[in-house]
Amino acid sequence: MSVPADSAVPFASSAARSGAPYVETPVAYDAVLLIGFGGPEGQDDVIPFLRNVTRGRGIPDERLEEVATHYRHFDGVSPINDQNRELQKALQDEIDRRGLALPVYWGNRNWTPMLDDVVRGVYDDGHRTVLGLATSAYSSYSSDRQYREDIARVLGSEEGTGLGEGADPMTIDKVRLFFDHPGFVEPFYEGIRDAVSAWLDAGRPAREIRLLFSTHSVPMADAERSGPPEGDFGPGGAYVAQHRAVAEYLMGRLRDEIPDAAETDWSLVFQSRSGPPSQPWLEPDVNDVIAGLPEDGVTAVAVVPLGFVSDHMEVMWDLDNEAKESAEEAGLAFARTRTPGSHAAYVSGLVDLIEERLNGTPAAARPHVTPLGPWYDVSRAGSDENVRLGFRPAAAGLAP
After folding, report:
1. Residue 312 in marked binding region
2. pLDDT tens digits for 367-399?
3. pTM of the prediction?
4. Is 147 annotated as a binding residue?
5. 224 is in an annotated binding site
6. Among 28, 53, 209, 335, which has the minimal tally of Cβ within 10 Å of its Cβ?
């Protein structure tokens, strides 16, 4: 991988090459690249998709078939691709409404449209200064660094297209993590407000209502390495700290706007664990917590999918089926609140993030609802290490 001599950041625009945490000078981006996880769109796609997701781990198809049952329950179709098509269109409509003259492309890590093919198309269309927007809001290996590795791999010549090298290279920067941007947070607030208000209006005491803010579990060792190494984030690293900070904001706002909800309590919980029992992952599991709620006098639980941007498989299967069943077994009223999806506030907020980079908005003027924000434009050195894989080349950040 070749990097310009004046660049501390691989494949970065000229404004981001210095490696400063915030890019506060305008950048004339000529395209936006929406980067997703991807998902199967038919029964024949399921196992090949899961092979892509688990590539390099040597997991046999028999074990993959255990996970495949979740997709097969929905005829082998993950909702995530249609959700990204909808988001792509909504972003393009909002960008056009603002007169920004930027086309929005979309590519995936694990299924068609594959990122490699899309990047070639972006290049062939004449675009060279691209701004990436990954469909993930928080710090961790899989939710941040792996997307940056995807960009570096695709632009490099060893495994990818080589379009980031040579005499006429493409650069791809990435918008900051948006876990505490008001546009991302607003749909979650509306969901908890509506769920709690409905139960209060029906006469249920606030102390009998519990909110569980749920996110994807990750290996504890990886969680501890999330965010920059110099950060003092406490147990679970930046990944846990960011989720807690957003949940605290949401609960504070709920209690301020609905005083009758003052006695409603909350917890941060985890879901969708996939590692071996011998490997410590973030806990507690959402289903274990739900099972114990009646002992605390709780009669109603609202699960808030705080770690997810849309209603994809982990939300539809792990929450809408498994968590709901756990609540039914515990005799609890159950609600699962919405994800951002293509909510107007979320879409507008994402375009605000694009405009931050177009305009070089100073960090001090960037909106955020927790003390942890605004997060960095350029990832800091050593952020989000994967313990199993170590550091691999990654764009939009300082090495390693």
Report:
1. no
2. 999 999 999 999 999 999 999 999 999 999 999
3. 0.96
4. yes
5. no
6. 28
